[in-house]
Amino acid sequence: MAEFDKSSFDIGASGSLYKEKYGFYDPEKYVFKAKKGLNREIVEEISWMKNEPEWMRKFRMRALEIFFKKPLPQWGGNLNDIDFDDIYYFLRATDKAERSWEEVPKDIKNTFDRLGIPEAEKKFLAGVGAQYESEVVYHNIQESLRKQGVIFLSMDQGLAEHPDLVKKYFGTIIPAADNKFAALNSAVWSGGSFIYVPPGIHVDMPLQAYFRINAKNMGQFERTLIIADEGSYVHYVEGCTAPIYTSDSLHSAVVEIIVQKGARVRYTTIQNWSTNVYNLVTKRALAQEDATMEWVDCNLGSKLTMKYPSIYMMGKGAHGEILSVAFAGKGQHQDAGGKVVHGAPYTTSTVSSKSISKDGGRTSYRGLLKVYPGAEGVKSNVRCDALLLDEASRSDTYPYIEVDEDNVTIGHEASVSKIGEEQLFYLMSRGLTEAEASTMIVSGFIEPIVKELPMEFAVEMNRLIQLQMEGSVG
Amino acid sequence: MADELSIRNLHVQVEGKEILKGLDLIVRHGEVHAIMGPNGSGKSTLANTLAGHPKYVVTDGEILYKGESVLAWKPDERARRGIFLAFQYPMAIPGVTVANFLRTALNARRKAVGSNGAAKAVSIPEFRKLMLQRMEMLKLDPTFAARYLNDGFSGGEKKRVEILQMAVLNPEMAILDETDSGLDIDALRIVSEGVNALRGPQLGVLLITHYQRILNYIKPDFVHVLVNGKFAISGGPELALQLEEKGYDWLKEISPEEMGTGK
């Protein structure tokens, strides 16, 4: 049984608010719970339980070796306190992913009801995947899209039902050896989404995946693969939350995206983990000729996030866009940013990052802009703005620019500002309390990015910002 | 409880330096008082002090509004109680639309009024109607509603949007801090007409200005001249014309015995 430690009320100024809305937990009634810790047996067991093809088992075992060999990164945030032996690597809450909420076990359905997922599905989503601990418990897509050949399954189902397609692309954009946490995910991955959009098909409403950690000391390692075939369009949105525990959890996902010629993929994240979660995620997209890839990456929760969504523009005329918001409160470190890699001529990219630090929170922008020789006519613009809410908070910028081609247009701007006394006074002189005034300034600061979200998510985002701001002033 | 703003022996320091050195003034609802004076005389200090800017420290004296001391009230409390400051230099708030800001502010004000009487949050259609009507009065294009507050506005646009805020929030005591500065003659007329339209028995106005020009449009009931942190002389509208002719220098020669003390 998971118990709730009262001392966790101390975590973060908005800890109690988060607890009320997202931080609740269910009793553990699991079908299968692997022992804590990581070894060959656990990985074998995961693969066996999932009844996977031999190539995947081998892929996992190789990845595990790589994970053991690679040293822990000593840049970014502090990873040294992660106790890899004190984590559950595989928790199976139910036997299968249902296509009807009625079939989902009651406790788990209640959780997603409280998070508003079935409600949102009815109103404005084309499909929903809901992951609870290690596995997807619900997955469904509109019948009309299914008939058009759009595939939206859990990664496990994707592997079972479309083995050839998965084998062709899985691990090709992010190989296991890419970094220590990509190796870890490759070894123990479970859940996540598999999406294929056939040529010319536009999925007008977003597909959403929601990731929920419930158990203490949980490790969640979902794996997502999106293939947008020529001229297609899809918007994928992911959200996540977890209960607040005093011990740490680990979330380490891998997301690979292939955007074929003339296709467009938008991937939106609203990351709202509780402040005891290490969020170490590798996300990368390959954009072919005239393709467009857009990452909209909002990081509000977690203890430490290290995440740099990347776009490799390998076809002429490809376009990449990274819009990110990071909010770090007490005890939080958001080390986020993005990479745009121009490997073909006339590719263009825009990176826009907005970070907010309060109550001693720390944000870092870490970005790479790379132009390969021969990629002439590249245009790229990088802009990062940081807003500090108090003296105790911190913001750093690490922009790396490597340009090996002369005929390019590159822009880079960075700014750091503080909420000014004069701005606060101006808003307060109109009747807003200091807290309302600060929240309004912060909301305005991130508005250029929030307005890119679908309306319902923009509303959600503003509400989350308000939640983060509450309790911080006065 | 008198509907008036009462300033008594007001001394104010900014960063340790005394700027206001004992002001007395009473502004009743329904009256327009013009405060004139040369640069550096303390006009903006008076405006900011009344609105509760934390940098302006009241070292002596009292400010009463409807018989209650405002000194312990934060700026937002003063605003919710009906005191309004039109800023000389309005701040830009990027990312916050004029409409969103105005509606939030109006609801804050209504909530406060509602605690005494009966008022609730303004509905969106009701708000829209009010805002568009007030925008028309100030000859502001309706597209301003969706623009970010003061972000990239010209000086004249900012001043008009200040009066728009006043027109929407419907204060009972308005302090206009050099609202005329930076306005061309057409903008000055529009802004003045806006203020005049809001004049009435429920509104007291403290009109702070360097120049007599705006007083051709907004006729004051009283004129006070601030020199070196004190009122040098007070009178009726004719005093403004006298200043226009003679400038401020002659006032600096007046002996303390001849000085007015407000009214």
Q: What's the total count of β strands of chain B?
A: 10
Helix/sheet category of chain B: alpha/beta
Assembly type: heterodimer
Q: Gap between N and C termini of chain A, in Å? A: 38 Å
Q: Radius of gyration of chain A in whole Å, from Cα?
A: 21 Å
What is the element string of chain B, with H for helices and E for strands? EEEHEEHEHHHEHEEEHH
| Largest sheet data of chain A | 12 strands, mixed
Could you please say which CATH topology of chain B applies here?
Rossmann fold
In helices, the fraction of residues of chain B equals 25-40%
Indicate how many domains the architecture of chain A comprises.
1
Tally of distinct domains of chain B: 1
Q: Average pLDDT of chain B, to the nearest integer?
A: 91
Spatial ordering of strands, largest sheet of chain B: 6-7-8-3-9-10
Task: Write a concise synopsis of the structure shown.
Chain A has 474 residues and is α/β, with parallel strands linked by helices. Chain A has helices at residues 15-21, 40-49, 54-69, 106-114, 117-124, 143-147, 155-161, 163-169, 180-188, 421-428, 434-450, 455-469, and strands spanning 32-33, 91-92, 127-132, 135-141, 151-154, 193-197, 207-212, 219-220, 223-228, 233-241, 249-251, 254-259, 264-271, 277-287, 292-299, 304-307, 310-313, 319-328, 333-342, 348-357, 362-371, 378-388, 394-403, 408-418.
